Amino acid sequence: MSSKSPPPILAGKEYAAASVFEPANLLREARRQKGLPPAAIPEICLLDPDGDILRGLRHAGRATLSPGWACYHTELYEFDEDGMRFGIIGCAVGAPFAVLLAEELFVSGCCFLISMTSAGQICAMKAPAIITCRPANSPRPMARSSPRR
Description:
The protein is 22% helix and 15% strand. By secondary structure, it is α/β, with parallel strands linked by helices. It has a domain at 40-115. A hairpin with a 2-residue loop joins strand 3 and strand 4 (84-90). Helix 1 packs across helix 3 (95-107). It is flat and about 60 Å long. The protein starts with 22 loop residues before the first helix and ends in a 34-residue tail after the last strand.
């Protein structure tokens, strides 16, 4: 075994130190640099990795840019469905990126996050399963779904 010193890129690192790249800090600095005041985002948000849902909402004129989103890498859109306000970020591809967005959404006021994607069907063998979520103490489902055939 060699007792060589580590390469410069690995030398002098403090791996046990707290990260300086906290989501709240990133957004605070983005707000400062962009001149944005703190603003609320919807409590229920979606990550749309394929971007299909967001494209459909924008095409129908139902999605507008969220004035409270300070992230440099994405745009958060807002839309209403069945009397509820939702936030949505399209093309959020890759687990590390999705985790960063999730952390930024939660420190911005999101309470419930859904990642919506699809793999599709090569051959239509049966109707896809539909899952309906209901937050605690909510009298109605968060999303409508067609009955399973």
